[in-house]
């Protein structure tokens, strides 16, 4: 696929993946609409005229060949007539070969111009419907922030628990086996799990829901494809439908269940801060080697408010007193972050910044869950777990020895670090993007990545703040993931310092340029909702300029649009203002 990447950043940062000739096409379309003339570009008109002219010459050449043959057949043995007919025939055949070669060249040029301009003309365009995924648009662009298993995932264990996280609070009474259908794809939703076979739990914010199939999914002999359908009957907490507008029919996805059961406990792979000193407004971050149950790993510790979440604790001082704050999950359910409740300032967006106790020793404690009679499976206490578990209900392996030993015996104690007395007020910047601004010939399956200048809050790199928009618009899912990087720009190992973060936008196959309605542009977009590990927002939208020199965006022009600073919100080539309304 040919595409070009641009960047719009600041209050908004955004980039465009677009076909090279889209800009020229837009100009022609605007002129045609204003004058009521044909919107076909002049180069294509000329190419078509040349092709028609060559076609006429071909007809003339064929007539000459027929006439030469007629003269030869009626020469009656006359040497002069026979010689003249032969010469005419040879010349006509040579001319026809030249004409056919010219026609082939003209057709090739016309096809190239047609594809570049996105105009079907006499060329048959491929049906875009073959590349689209129905009922997928709510992931990223709509109400669905994330889910597990991911779309089209393979090798999912039979004892998987299904996670869905929404962007807004949901009415739990509308989330049940009737509105969330889990079924073998080949059998249809008539075979969906019933109420007695699908246990449902949710977090205190009523945004993350966990669906636990009571029977094991699939079978022990063959892989089985399953579908999940979130119906339009799910409502937000305020009573309005969760699925609205173009995504009003709900959301659905498939994944493939293997023949195996997951009995491997999850491990901790990294912690930020990992010792030393840190500014008091640094969020505490813990990452795992696999997705974790969002209900078991998120919550609020607030002694004053009477909320006591203790599956993870951030402890301060010699007495190891639990610090009040909120535990949030992100990065495909692999990263949990702690943000304190004690306000200590504001960032440049006017958002409140929160701090750990100043000048104190701080450490993190992550608790394993009580084991069931079938370890490493955790014991359900009521409808929930009393410690950290993975997507298959296995308890945390705190010491990383491969064996889950349960609550109190296998908790994880992170390295202690010392907070300072000064708030870290750095503003995160975008240092690189891939594909580059206005880059051409982008593969349809190429990853879209955005690298920041500092470690970032993984929970802020979500579908509301990191987006990917097609233009012209069509139903397309997207979801961000993140990796922490070392000083060399590689994924940081557990014993390496994290100096930056890279966001990866997962997306389906881009539409090739020869599909109906194409070519399409793609705009990666980053809003000021993304925050550094110090809780400071991306404002202005400092990012790479289109020229490759210097930083885009200023105080007066805080948006960065395709590598150029702008005082107003960015727009696509087609005139769509970004970020679009949800």
Automatic annotation (TrEMBL):
Residues 392-438 are annotated as: Disordered. This is SbsA Ig-like domain-containing protein. The keyword Signal applies. Keywords: Membrane, Signal, Transmembrane, Transmembrane helix. InterPro entries: SbsA_Ig, T4SS_pilin. Residues 145-255 form the SbsA Ig-like domain. It comes from the Bacteria. Residues 1-24 form the signal peptide. Coiled coil: none annotated. The chain crosses the membrane at residues 48-68, 89-110. It comes from Candidatus Uhrbacteria bacterium RIFCSPHIGHO2_01_FULL_63_20.
């Amino acid at each position: 696929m040919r595409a070009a990447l641009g960047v719009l950043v600041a209050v908004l940062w955004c980039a465009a993946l677009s076909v090279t000739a889209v800009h020229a096409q837009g100009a022609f379309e605007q002129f045609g609409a204003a004058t009521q003339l044909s919107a076909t570009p002049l180069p294509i008109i000329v190419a078509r005229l040349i092709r028609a002219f060559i076609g006429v010459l071909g007809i003339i050449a064929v007539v000459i060949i027929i006439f030469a043959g007629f003269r030869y057949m009626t020469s009656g043995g006359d040497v002069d007539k026979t010689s003249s007919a032969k010469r005419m025939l040879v010349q006509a055949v040579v001319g026809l070969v030249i004409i056919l070669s010219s026609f082939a060249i003209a057709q090739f040029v016309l096809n190239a111009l047609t594809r570049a301009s996105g105009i079907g003309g006499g060329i048959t365009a491929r049906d875009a419907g073959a590349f689209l995924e129905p009922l997928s648009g709510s992931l990223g662009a709509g109400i669905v922030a994330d889910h597990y298993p991911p779309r089209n995932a393979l090798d999912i264990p039979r004892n998987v628990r299904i996670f869905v996280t929404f962007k807004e609070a949901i009415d739990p009474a509308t989330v049940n086996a009737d509105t969330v259908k889990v079924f073998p794809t080949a059998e249809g939703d008539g075979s969906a799990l019933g109420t007695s076979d699908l246990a449902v739990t949710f977090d205190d914010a009523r945004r993350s829901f966990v669906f636990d199939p009571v029977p094991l999914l699939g079978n022990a002999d063959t892989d089985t494809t399953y579908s999940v359908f979130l119906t339009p009957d799910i409502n937000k907490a305020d009573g309005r439908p969760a699925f609205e507008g173009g995504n009003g029919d709900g959301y659905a996805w498939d994944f493939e269940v293997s023949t195996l059961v997951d009995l491997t406990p999850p491990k901790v792979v990294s912690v930020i801060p990992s010792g030393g000193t840190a500014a008091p407004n640094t969020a505490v971050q813990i990452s795992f080697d696999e997705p974790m149950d969002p209900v078991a790993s998120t919550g609020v510790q607030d002694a004053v408010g009477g909320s006591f979440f203790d599956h993870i604790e951030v402890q301060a001082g010699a007495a190891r007193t639990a610090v009040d704050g909120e535990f949030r999950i992100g990065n495909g359910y692999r990263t949990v972050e702690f943000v304190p409740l004690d306000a200590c300032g504001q960032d440049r967006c006017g958002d409140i910044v929160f701090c750990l106790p100043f000048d104190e020793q701080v450490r993190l404690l992550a608790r394993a869950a009580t084991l069931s009679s079938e370890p490493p499976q955790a014991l359900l206490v009521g409808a929930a777990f009393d410690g950290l578990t993975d997507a298959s209900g296995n308890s945390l392996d705190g010491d990383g020895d491969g064996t889950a030993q349960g609550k109190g015996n296998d908790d994880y104690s992170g390295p202690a670090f010392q907070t300072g007395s000064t708030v870290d007020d750095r503003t995160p910047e975008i240092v690189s993007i891939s594909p580059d601004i206005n880059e051409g010939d982008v593969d349809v399956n190429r990853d879209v990545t955005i690298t920041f200048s500092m470690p970032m809050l993984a929970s802020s790199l979500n579908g509301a703040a990191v987006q990917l928009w097609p233009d012209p618009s069509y139903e397309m899912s997207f979801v961000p993931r993140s990796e922490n990087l070392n000083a060399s720009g590689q994924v940081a190992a557990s014993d390496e310092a994290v100096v930056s973060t890279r966001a990866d936008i997962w997306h389906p196959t881009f539409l090739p340029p020869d599909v109906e309605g194409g070519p399409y542009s793609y705009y990666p977009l980053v809003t000021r909702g993304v925050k550094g590990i110090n809780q400071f927002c991306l404002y202005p939208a400092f990012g790479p300029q289109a020229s490759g020199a210097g930083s885009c965006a200023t105080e007066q022009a805080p948006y960065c649009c395709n590598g150029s600073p702008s005082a107003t919100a960015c727009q696509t080539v087609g005139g769509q203002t970004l970020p679009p309304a949800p």
